[in-house]
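We emphasize that the prediction below concerns an isolated chain of 239 residues; any contacts that depend on oligomerization or on bound cofactors are therefore not represented. The input was used exactly as deposited, without trimming of termini.
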Amino acid sequence: MFPSVKVCSATVISNLPTIKPRRYSIASTKEWEGSEVGLVVGVVDYTHKSGKRRFGLATGNLANHTIGSQLPGFLRSETSFRLPEDPKKDVMLIAAGSGISPFRGFWMKRGEQLQAGKEPGKTVIYFGCRNKRMNLLKDETDRLAQSGLKIERHVAYSQEPGVKKEYVQDKVWDDFMMVYKMIKDEGAIYVCGKVKMAQAVQDVLKRVLEKFLRIDGDDAQKMILKMKKDGRYQEDIFG
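Result of the prediction step, given as a token string:
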């Protein structure tokens, strides 16, 4: 466009934005998978307006590496987003898409607690995805249920042909009585996924509190903030 302008490659590269690190939740436990670290990654794969197929910079890199490849990375510990110390407490895991990632480690841990005779409480999963092909890790939770773990899975499909269009927050509202009982019995609620989904779930929980306690939105919000402070309502959100 401007043939008179001469810019060396070093100058061009120095003006490009720094590539930000991609953070993924570990989707496994040491007892279950030993020295291996499990990840759940949604690969960004789309067709550009030019007609060329494009992949996400990080997810495409992961998907296209061969087994045995070495990639740089680092670990960061999250001290608050974890299961209750009392395994008998009921837990509710709410996620959409790859947000299910940390919850895989959660149900693995509950399975370990069952094997150790600790009688873990109920684990209720609410998961949202586009269609049945994207109902991630269903076989794994089914096997845990068959082994005796008290685990339920409720799935909302947004683009499954012939099935009512729903989002994960719709499923949570459908079970408002059970949700309120879990809150009343001091169970723990966890939400992982995009900010918009997490806000929609929180709005549903406010409606549940308003309905059963006959309080207004401000008081319901105060209760949710207290649950967060007490560690009974935790979020791992992004995007």
